[in-house]
Recover the amino acids of this structure.
């Protein structure tokens, strides 16, 4: 049985860990002090790179590498902490904010020291009122204790943190949408390049980092790179061996929800399989696993054939899905995949920022097609076409085969792929919201096509038994082409 | 300069040029909506996608291939690259606008643009000059796959002259950016989100406008709207664009001298739109100029000469009016005559007028009349000048160009007028009220000859009224406040028996035995070029559509 390895969450349940005194008793701020005492800023940046830390916010981009793009000769530089956690199925940052906000502040301090940053903005999801309250209180304490403000702890560093609540838009979690919103504009992602690392907040170099990513920093500094790199997948299966240059180290705060007995956030080493994870979360509620969403609602779905997929950045990329935010949603045999897709598409159609043409008008279109299928109004035609083959009389001739054409499924796939093409990993949109729409749309439809066909044929939602509903892996597009689209990070 | 390969062409372009412009220079169309060369580039419509080439990651050095993602041609700029970064050892960029991927991307984007579009072209003002129609025709699908219900956002009245048909809006945000960047007034914004995006002005919760789109440059948003979403109330349902003739001209509203296109039919002027001039008006013009043409089409236009009989003005024949004027002019001394030209008139009108005064009447007492000054309006990227005449600079120089001519203006002029016996005043200034001093002076004149286009405060006092022409009815040149000499062109015929101003003056001269004999405005311009200092190059041929700047 796999055990949780609590590092970021170690003190989550420690009473009053949200206060400075208790936090301090549990090594609070010592890692920051160690960083300042023992390392040069550049050394910290190197350590983060060596540790192989990857962004936990969604894109999984190497944090150290991102830092190396920041021009150090342009002042001021900013740190933007992304606490907009709005991906459906994701709720791990929230607990850090509400329960252990000083850990985030320590992470921020280390990042600021490493990158020579004086100003940090924490962009907090608007609904996280408690989280913001707790963080604000912790920031106040940190100022009082001299960890923030002018001349932090007599080190000569000036570090300030400002919190900023979002106004309820999912797209403000996208780093450039976040920056626009922070600047007081409409939350619409920017065209890239320039990337935030070069021109971010107020067009100055900006490091945008997820809460969880920043919370890893104290432990990398405190316990060392070697300790950190020991955590992560141990690969036995050569098919899944990741390239050395693509490490998956550390723990991940997996948010497990759906049909499991004990949903919640579990801190586990990267690289466990879906099956192991379901076990950790108290086992499946229901008879059979029908599907697993591995990384927030925008990640392509996994079928019951794919439960041995390891939940780390590389393995999921190889499986043509993604770890994303680590929001894992388990579905049992009672779930109807068409209905699930409809739910997700309603969310995306509502959340598209509307800036660029394909996403603005394509996303609601996809939703409407799924809605039509779910309502039983999906279109289907039976056509008979001449086909050369062995006829009943045993001779070569026209076998007159009939074929079912599900126009709406073709349309659904085509429209989704026109927003962002999941096969070529190309998109004509400004931001990767487009792929977050077409990934679920196309993957649900392809992997659970029988259920979509049934809804159209029967004129109503039909939940098929798992084995019947799922397209076998041989036919499943995820296995056809194993390319690593390295750039599919939204950078 | 950057050396690039665009499709199969090898071309040189200025550093910093984007692909849309580079292609346009070589007659390759890169369809685009949100990009406008006078505004910032949000690259939100995604219509201008092109395929850039570059080194292929992982392939042997020097291998060039199409990039994984298409790029927006509006933001893809080219620059000369250092030798080691040149592609195929010589190009600074390789871009295709005609690859299969690009063609498909265009089809896809156009399909998305049309899913909620009403396609009410038959009743849409933009039809015929609509980028959505044109690009759909050239790059789009011929069928729609969209079966769902279309959004029907409301039609909105945005301001004095602008209506928004929200259903047709493709959310390119050009109009918003115009108000933010050029007029700086920021009235427009987006409300709602996603497929419910709508352009709107600020409103209270009850929907009552807090701020109207009423800045003096507002009309430009109608021009730059690539579809029929923003519509000018002034032009609404008046004509199909293809039924109108177009002439390149210059606005007569103020001394900026915005380049314009006058669109007209035989029965009048229908609309005026700005025409690009890099140094003068860029892409823009103000609403005063844009909507100030209505007097041209007025039913009240002077159509026949008039003379005063028993205190009343009555219409008469040209021959009669000219004889009457000639009699009155020959009876008085040259010292008692004042000849006043108009800052609304062309250089040609004023040249013939001063020639008439100097050579025929032998008077050197000239004056300059024009519209009363208005207010100056400054915007971040545009200025409307206070001088409401298009040709003050030109008229002033040209009236004074002959030896000894004195061109009086303001109080000095009216003092002189008050003491004169005969005054020949060429006005043509629409809606010009007279100030008290001006009226008193003109009332003292024994015989006032007024040449004008509409009944006015001046014609009310006149003894003879001669029907002249507006900017829309004649050829000629204006000189703007910064010394640009530019051409206006005849569009419609003058109403009734009204005549071009210099022709009237020339006939008067002939009546008095003078020898002025021009046949068309271009001929006068040649005379100006020969005789007026600074105008040496200002022949119509040289001026062309771009204008020339005096030294
Ligand atoms: C549509 C969209 C929504 C996103 N939402 C979030 C979010 O809620 N929280 C987050 O941390 N990152 C989110 N991201 C990822 C960010 O763009 C960015 O990659 C991340 O904040 C970088 O931090 P990291 O490298 O520490 O992960 C989102 C990305 C996209 C495209
Ligand atoms: S892809 Fe969607 S969310 Fe992203 S910029 Fe375009 S419209 Fe906005
Ligand atoms: S905007 Fe263009 S395409 Fe749309 S209705 Fe008007 S003319 Fe037709
Ligand atoms: S109203 Fe016209 S200019 Fe404005 S966003 Fe819509 S289409 Fe563009
Ligand atoms: S013109 Fe380039 S994206 Fe709109």
């Amino acid at each position: 049985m796999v055990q949780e390895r609590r590092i970021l969450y170690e003190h989550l349940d420690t009473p009053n860990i949200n206060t400075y005194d208790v936090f301090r008793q549990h090594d609070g701020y010592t890692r920051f002090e160690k960083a300042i005492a023992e390392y040069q800023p550049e050394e910290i940046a190197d350590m983060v790179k060596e540790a192989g830390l990857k962004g936990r916010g969604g894109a999984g981009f190497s944090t150290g590498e991102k830092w190396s793009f920041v021009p150090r000769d342009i002042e001021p530089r900013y740190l933007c902490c992304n606490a907009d956690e709005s991906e459906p199925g994701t709720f791990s940052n929230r607990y850090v904010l509400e329960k252990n906000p000083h850990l985030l502040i320590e992470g921020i301090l280390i990042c600021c020291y490493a990158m020579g940053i004086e100003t940090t903005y924490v962009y907090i999801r608007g609904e996280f009122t408690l989280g913001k309250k707790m963080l604000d209180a912790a920031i106040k304490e940190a100022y009082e204790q001299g960890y923030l403000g002018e001349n932090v702890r007599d080190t000569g560093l000036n570090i300030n943190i400002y919190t900023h609540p979002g106004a309820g838009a999912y797209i403000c979690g996208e780093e450039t949408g976040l920056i626009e919103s922070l600047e007081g504009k409409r939350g619409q992602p920017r065209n890239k390049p320039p990337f935030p690392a070069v021109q971010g907040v107020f067009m100055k170099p900006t490091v945008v980092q997820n809460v969880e990513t920043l919370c890893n920093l104290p432990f990398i500094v405190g316990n060392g790179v070697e300790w950190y790199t020991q955590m992560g997948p141990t690969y036995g299966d050569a098919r899944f061996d990741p390239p050395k240059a693509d490490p998956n180290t550390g723990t991940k705060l997996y948010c497990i929800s759906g049909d499991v007995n004990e949903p919640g956030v579990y801190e586990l080493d990267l690289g466990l399989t879906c099956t192991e994870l379901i076990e950790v979360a108290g086992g499946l509620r229901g008879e059979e696993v029908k599907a697993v969403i591995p990384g927030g609602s925008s990640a392509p779905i996994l079928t019951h054939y794919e439960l041995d997929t390891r939940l780390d950045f590389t393995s999921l990329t190889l499986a043509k899905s993604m770890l994303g935010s680590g929001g894992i949603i388990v579905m049992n045999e009672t779930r109807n995949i068409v209905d699930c897709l409809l739910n997700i598409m309603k969310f995306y159609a509502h959340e598209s920022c509307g800036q660029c043409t394909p996403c603005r008008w394509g996303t609601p279109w996809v939703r409407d097609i799924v809605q039509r299928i779910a309502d039983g109004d999906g279109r289907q035609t039976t056509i008979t076409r001449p086909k050369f083959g062995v006829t009943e009389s045993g001779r070569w001739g026209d076998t007159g085969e009939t074929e079912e054409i599900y126009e709406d499924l073709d349309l659904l796939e085509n429209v989704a792929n026109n927003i962002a093409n999941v096969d070529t990993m190309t998109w004509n949109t400004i931001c990767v919201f487009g792929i977050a729409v077409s990934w679920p749309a196309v993957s649900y439809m392809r992997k659970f096509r029988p259920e979509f066909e049934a809804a159209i044929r029967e004129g109503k939602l039909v939940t098929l038994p798992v084995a019947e509903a799922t397209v076998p892996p041989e036919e499943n597009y995820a296995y056809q082409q194993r390319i690593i689209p390295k750039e599919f990070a939204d950078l | 300069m950057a050396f690039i390969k665009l499709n199969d062409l090898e071309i040189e372009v200025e550093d910093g040029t984007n692909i849309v412009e580079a292609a346009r220079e070589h007659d390759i169309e890169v369809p685009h909506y949100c990009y406008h060369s006078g505004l910032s580039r949000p690259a939100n419509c995604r219509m201008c996608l092109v395929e850039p080439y570059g080194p292929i990651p992982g392939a042997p050095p020097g291998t060039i291939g199409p990039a994984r993602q298409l790029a927006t041609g509006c933001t893809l700029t080219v620059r000369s690259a250092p030798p080691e970064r040149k592609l195929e050892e010589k190009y600074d960029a390789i871009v295709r606008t005609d690859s299969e991927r690009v063609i498909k991307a265009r089809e896809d984007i156009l399909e998305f643009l049309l899913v909620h579009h009403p396609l009410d072209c038959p009743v849409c003002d933009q039809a015929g000059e609509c980028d959505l129609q044109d690009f759909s025709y050239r790059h789009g699908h011929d069928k729609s796959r969209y079966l769902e219900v279309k959004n029907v956002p409301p039609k909105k009245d945005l301001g004095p002259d602008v209506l928004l048909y929200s259903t047709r809006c493709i959310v390119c945000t050009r109009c918003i950016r115009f108000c933010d960047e050029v007029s700086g007034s920021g009235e427009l914004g987006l409300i709602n989100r996603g497929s419910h995006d709508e352009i709107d002005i600020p409103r209270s919760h009850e929907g009552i406008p807090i701020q109207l789109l009423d800045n003096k440059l507002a009309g430009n948003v109608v021009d730059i709207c690539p579809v029929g979403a923003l519509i000018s109330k002034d032009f609404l349902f008046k004509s199909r664009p293809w039924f109108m003739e177009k002439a390149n001209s210059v606005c007569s509203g103020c001394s900026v001298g915005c380049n314009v296109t006058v669109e007209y039919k035989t029965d009048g002027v229908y609309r005026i739109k700005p025409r690009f001039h890099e140094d003068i008006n860029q892409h823009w013009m103000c609403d005063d100029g844009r909507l100030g043409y209505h007097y041209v089409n007025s039913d009240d236009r002077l159509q026949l000469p008039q003379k005063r009989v028993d205190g009343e003005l009555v219409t008469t024949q040209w021959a009669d009016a000219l004889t009457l004027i000639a009699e009155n002019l020959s009876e008085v001394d040259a010292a008692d005559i004042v000849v006043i030209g108009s800052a609304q008139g062309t250089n040609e009108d004023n040249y013939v007028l001063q020639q008439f005064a100097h050579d025929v009447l032998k008077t050197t007492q000239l004056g300059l009349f024009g519209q009363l000054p208005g207010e100056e309006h400054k915007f971040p990227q545009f200025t409307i000048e206070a001088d409401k005449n298009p040709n003050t600079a030109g008229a002033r120089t040209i009236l004074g160009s002959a030896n000894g001519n004195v061109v009086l203006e303001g109080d000095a002029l009216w003092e002189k007028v008050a003491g004169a016996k005969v005054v020949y005043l060429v006005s043509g200034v629409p809606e010009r009220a007279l100030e008290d001093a001006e009226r008193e002076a003109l009332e003292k004149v024994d015989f006032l000859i007024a040449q004008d286009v509409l009944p006015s405060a001046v014609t009310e006092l006149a003894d003879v009224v001669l029907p002249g022409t507006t900017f829309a009815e004649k050829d000629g040149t204006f000189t703007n406040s910064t010394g640009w000499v530019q051409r206006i062109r005849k569009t419609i015929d003058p109403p009734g028996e009204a005549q071009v101003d210099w022709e009237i003056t020339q006939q008067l001269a002939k009546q008095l035995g003078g020898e002025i004999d021009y046949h068309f405005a271009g001929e006068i311009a040649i005379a100006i070029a020969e005789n007026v200092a600074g105008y040496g190059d200002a022949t119509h041929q040289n001026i062309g559509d771009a204008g020339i700047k005096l030294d």
Observations:
- Residues 236-240, 478-491 of chain A have pLDDT under 50 and may be disordered.
- Chain A has three domains: 20-230, 251-332, 337-489.
